[in-house]
Automatic annotation (TrEMBL):
Domain of life assignment: Bacteria
Residue ranges that the Swiss-Prot or TrEMBL entry lists as coiled coil: none
Protein name as annotated: WD40-like Beta Propeller Repeat
Organism: Thermophagus xiamenensis
Pfam families per record: PD40 (PF07676), TPR_6 (PF13174)
Length: 538
């Protein structure tokens, strides 16, 4: 599954104009165009353009139109616009019956929008709107007009950001996308179609998951993640469990796809298991994100009963460890169009997701919604230039929201899509802290049965109930800085444990490897009820 979405180009009419090709004495133009059209359907755009070269040199109208489409599909918008403008005089909009003319002007309007020129795009779509009679096509034109109006509004109030290309160590000439990192940014996982064997030059492979580590102020050379299971399947990164020890990924064998999880062990990665029902439903589920305490999962699904297309749902873990009935996130998040890529921030209140609805500026845009006492707030577009006229799907910010790892097909990439890091100004900091410790039972083994509560000492608000990693005993949590807390541990057969700690100004999460480590805790065996009560009260 390619998680990086390709340029949104309408294919309503692609190929239809072949029916309108003029008969010529030599059949070669018709044959060349038909063959080029077949190459485009296979996404072999350069080969299609090469096939059309003899006709392009003669400024053949249909050949120019196909070349413009192929350039758009490769997101070479400046070149596409130049080609399409050149052939426009051959396609006057005289009436609504000229299919090729409608197609040509629709492509040009889309190219203008995708090139961030909404004013020119609006002119093309308004002209089309006057002559088109087909209801579906008219609706598509209205949607394009709305995209342009949304774009003008968002571009008028740009967000201040800095974009950093993550370099040749991580990126390749192939598809590199869907990056996710540990909370401390010491490890990055991403999806790539590069060959597993460097000496293999036969071209793009199945999607595989690669891993790199931050060492000596730089990323190590990526290596394929060795997860047991099927060979020759597409696997794409989706998310991590809160402790960073479980990797969620989408697996597709070419027929069906579902969400799986593999957990880290001392020997590598364990056998992947499908996420249980009702998360995987037999319909299309593509993305998932756990809450910081691991007790809620947010996911996108095409299952029936939603608002339309893909919707975002969430499910709570029940006391017996199973997952409860999925709850639709509601009309403030979901629309009659598609919603994708949910990511719940470590603050456990902010949900990031992608949508083709709301006030998108074209295709998928990134939105956010905040959990309130009344439910989820109305979706808010996170703004331009984070969002673009093309699809923007995978958005995973660091705990303080200061940085976002993402992938893009923007010009200047090494390959088809590259990995980038987005930086916000310092005054946008959320001031969150990564807190970690190790908890062991009285036999000095990981206290896997322990339940850990973190409570705000001032408000008495319980931030969550956590579990340690059963293999290492490690606890990792993300909580607001500038606060005082109580750490409370309950474990069957052991005395309750409590500890107070404070997070100050220097503890907020600003850079890689910045985490607060509390001393390791070893629980004492349970003695009697009196001592239990004394421990809780201390």
């Amino acid at each position: 599954m390619i998680l990086i979405k390709k340029t949104v180009v309408s294919t309503i009419l692609l190929g239809c104009f072949l029916l309108f090709l003029p008969m010529v004495n030599a059949q070669s133009p018709r044959k060349l165009i038909r063959e080029a059209n077949e190459l485009i359907n296979l996404e072999l755009y350069d080969e299609a353009i090469e096939k059309l070269t003899p006709l392009i040199q003669k400024e053949h109208p249909e050949a120019l139109l196909l070349k413009g489409f192929a350039l758009m599909a490769q997101e070479k918008m400046d070149q596409a616009i130049s080609v399409l403008e050149k052939t426009m005089p051959n396609y006057p909009l005289e009436n609504g019956k000229n299919v090729a003319a409608i197609e040509a002007h629709f492509y040009l309007g889309q190219a203008y929008r995708l090139n961030e020129n909404p004013d020119k795009a609006l002119k093309e779509f308004e002209k089309l709107k006057q002559v088109v009679v087909d209801k579906q096509l008219k609706a598509d034109i209205e949607q394009e007009i709305q995209y342009c109006l949304n774009m003008k509004e968002l571009m008028a109030h740009p967000v201040s950001i800095r974009i950093e290309h993550l370099g040749e160590v991580l990126n390749s000439k192939y598809e590199d996308h869907s990056p996710i990192t540990l909370y401390d940014e010491s490890t990055i996982y991403f999806t790539s179609t590069r060959p597993i064997n460097e000496d293999d030059n036969e071209g793009a492979y199945f999607e595989n998951i690669f891993v790199s580590h931050w060492r000596n102020n730089g990323w190590t050379k990526p290596k394929v993640l060795k997860i047991p299971g099927y060979k020759n399947v597409n696997r794409a990164t989706v998310g991590l469990t809160p402790d960073g020890q479980g990797l969620i990924f989408f697996q597709n064998d070419g027929l069906n796809g579902a969400l799986f999880i593999s957990r880290k062990t001392f020997d590598g990665w364990g056998e992947p298991e499908p996420l249980p029902q009702p998360v995987n439903s037999g319909y299309n589920e593509t993305h998932a994100s756990f809450s910081p305490d691991g007790n809620t999962i947010y996911f996108s699904s095409e299952r029936p009963g939603g608002f339309g297309g893909k919707d975002i749902y969430y499910s709570h873990r029940l006391p017996d460890g199973t997952w409860g009935k999925p709850i639709n996130a509601g009309e403030n998040i979901n629309t009659e169009m598609d919603e994708e890529g949910p990511f719940i921030h470590p603050d456990n209140k902010t949900l990031y997701f992608s949508s083709t609805g709301h006030n998108s500026m074209g295709g998928y845009d990134i939105f956010k919604s905040t959990k309130t006492e009344k439910g989820w707030s109305k979706a808010e577009n996170i703004g331009y230039p984070i969002n673009s006229p093309s699809d923007d799907v995978f958005y995973v910010p660091t705990p303080n929201g200061q940085r976002v790892y993402f992938s893009s097909r923007k010009e200047g990439t090494i390959g088809q899509s590259d990995l980038f890091l987005l930086h916000f100004p310092e005054d946008n900091e959320r001031s969150m802290a990564v807190v970690s410790t190790h908890i062991f039972n009285s036999q000095n083994q990981p206290a896997e049965k322990a339940v850990i509560y973190i409570i705000n000492s001032k408000t008495n608000e319980r931030l969550g109930a956590y579990k340690v990693n059963p293999t290492t005993g490690k606890l990792v949590t993300i909580i607001p800085s500038f606060q005082e807390y109580k750490l409370l541990i309950e474990c069957e057969g052991h005395q309750p444990y409590s500890q107070n700690f404070k997070l100050g100004m220097k503890d907020d999460y600003k850079s890689k490897n910045r985490a607060i480590y509390l001393p390791a805790i070893t629980l004492k065996p349970k003695l009697d009820n009196t001592q239990d009560n004394n421990n809780i009260n201390n």
